[in-house]
Amino acid sequence: MSCSEKTQRASTCWTVNLGQGRIPHRHSYCKQQRIRNKIAVPVYISFILATTLICWTGSDCQISGESFIQILTLNNIHRNREATIIVLGIIMLTVSILGEKIISKLNIIAVPALILLCIYGMVTCLQDISFMELVKASPVEPISLAEGVAMVFGMQAVGSTISPDYHRFCRDRKGSCLAAVVGIIPYCLFLFIAGSVMGAATGESDISVLIAKLGLPIIGLIILVLATWTTMACDAYTGGLAITSLLHLSGKKRAAATAVAGIVGILLAVFDIMNYFTNFLDLMASCIPPVAGVMITDYWPLKHGKVENWEERPGFHWNGIICLVCGVLAALFLPFGFLTINGILVSGILYFLTSKLASRTETQS
Questions:
Q1: Where does this protein have coiled-coil stretches (predicted)?
Q2: Pairwise CA distance, residues 221 & 75, whole Å
């Protein structure tokens, strides 16, 4: 996993607005309205989201834990790795259990601090290496452009799909759009660039080791711990929502479900989930974007961006399921293009065509 990817994951959760604004629906309800009835539980979406968010929680917990271990080591304090990750993970998990208001307050501190740290890191690195040397720098194991795009999309896939969890608190659609376009995209691009510059200049891919080499080891690592804390809090919180939907639990069980998601994530961190992270990103780039393809098509072209146009359908909506599966298969097996874009386009176009065909058939009958 590259430094720029780890640096971005130390930021707040990526969100791409789908236009809902302040709609009083949980993320699971918004997405699953395309494929569920009053009884059927949308196992695929809930299971995939819960699983991936738990894995993200584990990766964030591991990055934060290893950064904290670096802080202790710099002060000649040596503690057991597993015990440190577990204790720190439980402390961070409390924020997720308390809810999104605490998460936003933590972000107010962590996000500006991370930006300042990245600026300092880039300035420090550019004093030791020229711009042309940065451009010519090549990784130990280079990958193709298609693989790089797939990894970036894989990182963003889950956050983009769960964005209604947080955008539902915006006052209107304009606020949601501004939050995604102005508040998130420039920030994430900056973090990718900063991570690339610092990684190329230092030759390090381990973000905790890299930060320790920048000249402000303790302060920098504390900021990194705070930044990954906010991201872990978002992932565990939304993972809890996915579990409540998967098991059809009431909203009162959200805190307990969040605790379960967080604890499983902490255990994954203990067992070094980061070693399998690239494969995990590839899988997410194939399985999650087709969900967004169906969501976007259903909300914009078919419902014209108006939530009041949607109504619950009787029976099981096989159309959405089949289009979703086709999108995943396209992402996995089409030999051309970018797998993530292939998945979105195939699922979205198929859903649009089959929905129009079904509507015309109903009208004629």
A1: none
A2: 12
